[in-house]
């Protein structure tokens, strides 16, 4: 069976803010680098950054230019290579359209959250037996700030189980959460 193309999506659009209301969060350089490196390390199809704000597109373009055309390209070729996996979009719909066109079919939408969604829950052990046999591309969404909104999670086919710590504290950075989740799903010990 052919492995499906897996795309990571980091959403900055309509994610939850501190007051549990949808906001547009800022793109951070470290997220761009770390998600790109995570995507490249695990052989995933792409990393898609979504922001509706023009100023954030400009900042991201400058970062990419520095690492892919400027001084950074020769200074750190590994980072430059990883950033070739990064695609920037103004909306989630535009992202899905590009992925569907590239892969030839609509992807399965998987969300992540620090909250449980029992009606859509997919645990890490079920991923291989439930998602991979569908032979469809996969989008795994992450939300910046305080995470994906209920509306964003509602559009997902599945929501991965929250990462459980040891004493109830559950507020990882999105980079840390993504690394843990991707290793649980695609790490060498799981293959």
Question: How would you characterize this protein structure?
Answer:
It is a single chain. With 191 residues, the chain is an alpha/beta fold. The chain has a single domain (6-190), classed as SPOUT methyltransferase, trefoil knot domain (Alpha/beta knot, 3-Layer(aba) Sandwich), CATH 3.40.1280. It has helices at residues 29-41, 54-68, 71-75, 77-82, 92-103, 124-130, 150-154, 174-186, and strands at residues 6-11, 15-16, 22-23, 46-50, 86-89, 108-111, 121-122, 138-143, 158-160. The strands form 2 sheets. A 7-stranded parallel β-sheet has the order 5-4-1-8-6-9-7, with helices on both faces. Strands 2-3 form a two-stranded antiparallel sheet. Helix 1 runs parallel beside helix 8 (174-186). The radius of gyration is 16 Å and the shape is globular. The model has no long low-confidence stretch (mean pLDDT 93).
């Amino acid at each position: 069976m052919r492995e499906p193309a897996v795309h990571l999506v980091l959403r900055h659009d309509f994610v939850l803010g501190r007051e549990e209301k949808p906001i547009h969060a800022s793109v951070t350089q470290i997220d761009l680098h770390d998600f790109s490196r995570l995507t490249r390390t695990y052989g995933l199809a792409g990393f898609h950054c979504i922001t509706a704000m023009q100023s954030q597109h400009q900042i991201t373009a400058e970062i990419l230019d520095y690492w892919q055309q400027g001084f950074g390209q020769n200074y750190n070729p590994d980072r430059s290579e990883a950033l070739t996996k990064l695609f920037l979009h103004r909306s989630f719909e535009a992202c899905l359209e590009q992925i569907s066109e590239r892969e030839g079919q609509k992807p399965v939408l998987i969300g992540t959250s620090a909250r449980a969604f029992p009606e859509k829950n997919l645990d890490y052990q079920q991923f291989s037996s439930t998602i991979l046999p569908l032979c469809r591309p996969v989008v795994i969404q992450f939300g910046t700030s305080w995470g994906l909104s209920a509306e964003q999670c509602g559009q997902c086919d599945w929501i991965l189980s929250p990462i459980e710590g040891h004493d109830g504290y559950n507020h990882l950075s999105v980079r840390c959460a993504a690394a843990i989740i991707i290793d649980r799903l695609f790490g060498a010990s799981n293959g």
